[in-house]
Amino acid sequence: MVSATEAPPVVPPRAGSVDPGPAPTELARAPAPADGSRRAPVPLVVASLGVAALFASPLAYLVWRNTALGSELVDAVSSPETLVPLGRSVVLAVAVSVSAAVVGTLLAWCVVRTDLPGRCLWRVLAPLPLVIPSYVGATAFLAALAPGGLVEPFLAPFGLRRMPELSGFWGAWLVLTAFTYPYVYLPTAARLAALPPSLEESARLLGRPPRQVFRTVVLPQARGAVWAGTLLVFLYTISDFGAVELMRYGTLTREIFANKLAPSASLPLALVLGGLALVVVALERRANRRALTPGTLRTRAVLRVPLGRWRWAAFAAVVAVLAVALVVPLGVLAYWAARGLASAGSGTVELSTDLGALAGPALNTMGVSLVAAVAAVVLVLPLAFYTTRHRSALGGVANALVVAGFALPGLVVALALVFWTLGAEPLGALYQTIPLLVFAYVVHFGAQAMRAGQVAVGAVPTRLDDAARVLGAGPGRRLRTVDAPLMLPGLAAGGGLVLLSTMKELPATLLLAPPNFDTLATRLWSANESSYFAQVGLAGLVLVGLSALLTWALVLRRQEHL
Fold first, then answer.
1. Domain segments of the chain: what residues?
2. Which of 26, 173, 428, 443 is the most exposed place for a label (fewest CB within 10 A)?
3. 3-state class of 116 per DSSP?
4. In DSSP terms, which residues pair with 477 in a beta bridge?
């Protein structure tokens, strides 16, 4: 039995095998050395500040443009037209965050740490709701669950003659919870898979029941992962536009979109969103300052908890969650696609049934998403090292600027880059190019890679790095031979989140993509706008299938001991 404080032997992987290493993705920040003598190398500080400056550029542009408004800015921020939507955004974000944290945490524990039937299947299916765009999911929910929807006839024999109204706060809450809980599930599952079983075994030997072991041993160690995922859910919710627009719930993003052609009205609202993100990040850092989780290195399979008489109840709960988050939207997409294919040529439905027409958008989607994911991981890695191993106020500010980019709606990020590049003559050549599009993706979704990078760095025991330093290994060699192999699963999980988010991003793609550069998201949007639901179904199924394949290859396959 290896305790969490012992230094386990590092065994090299067998030839041809995949060394999973620890796969944590919680929000961890390694404490500074006890003597406080180790300072961050100057190149690391400079690189980290450069990364923060890049991520801060859209927010800096918003501040600069808003300063020109003078007293009008104060009036705009303090007006009911701003405060009321702000309140709705906060209430919705808190509600979605709580429900997504509960669903994601319990689902991760059931899949990773219990004898739940069909765990291998649930491990593949559980992250998939993340790939469904919110506006597509909301459209599918309205088609299936609203009064007069597709589900209503099947429930009539059970006494439910009319479905309840699906709109407003509760409609937006249901849609966003169903499609954001994987933000909590993925890091929590990775963290639970990395925990050494010795701690739980010791608690069992002391006579604690399984429920108390989970509450007092497992949950405190996974708390950082839950916090990290919950923060992403909160920021995603306040920046979402598709679901709240379709559910007719007036949040800040809806007001920004409605005033997108009036900078004097939309830019103050966008600045309020950025300020809200900074406040949330500051509060989150303060809450986690005393909740640091030391890195652990698991050396054998995770402990399985027998569910006993609750086994099939847990199975039913997992099936219910995935039925709402996957079966309903995918069922609607499949129904629309099948109906369109059956009606093709009848003159009643406008449909392109040529799957080859989707090959180009699919390749564009996969290519630009992979580039954005790799670029995000590489770009934020120096800052992840700086904020995790060398805690400082400067690093905290840099970290907050990166995370603030995630709270800005994609529409706001794209508009800022458009006005910036077109207003600066040397940068005009970047307008509607792939590099600028990738940069917008990285700024908007880089916080996901940042969180995973911080946890991956924090999960590497500092004693291994110290031992390599004593043996004469330089920084490059330590990174290549000690840090990188152990961080790879966590970095892959962060890159996978960026990839999945990029694949369904719409506003930045519409504004910044080169001419005739179609993605699956833009195809879905144009078909949905034209009410060509058969095309929405066909393109949506291709997007989900492609995303599922990439999710398995980049995230799930590396977690081979789940």
1. 53-556
2. 428
3. coil
4. none
Q: Which residues contact 443 (CB under 8 A, 6 or more apart)?
A: 54, 55, 57, 58, 405, 413
pLDDT of 491 reads 80
DSSP letter for each residue of 432-455:
TSHHHHHHHHHHHHHHHHHHHHHH
DSSP letter string, 44-68: HHHHHHHHHHHHHHHHHHHHHHHHT
Cβ atoms 501, 180 nearer than 8 A: no
Residue pLDDT, tens place only, 60-119:
888 888 887 777 788 878 888 888 998 999 999 999 999 999 999 989 888 887 878 888
Q: Which two tokens stand for residue 544?
A: 């989900």
124/110 Cα distance (integer angstroms): 14
Pair of tokens at residue 283: 């509060």
The per-residue pLDDT for range 197-217, each reduced to its tens digit, is 666 666 666 666 666 666 667
- Both tokens of 152, joined, read 């209503």
CB 106 within 8 A of CB 186: no
Are 469 and 38 in contact by the 8 Å Cβ rule? The answer is no
Rounded percentage of the chain residues whose pLDDT exceeds 90: 10
User: What are the helix (H) ranges across 68-150?
Assistant: 71-78, 80-113, 119-125, 134-145
- Amino acid in the structure at residue 537: G
Rounded-to-integer distance, Cα 251 and Cα 195, Å: 39
53-556 CATH fold:
MetI-like fold (1.10.3720)
- Output helix, strand, coil percentages for the chain, rounded to the nearest 5: 75, 0, 25
| Type of residue found at 64 | W
Give the C-alpha separation, 193 to 558, whole Å.
11
Q: What is the mean pLDDT of residues 149-173?
A: 78
* Alpha carbon distance 60, 52 (integer Å): 11
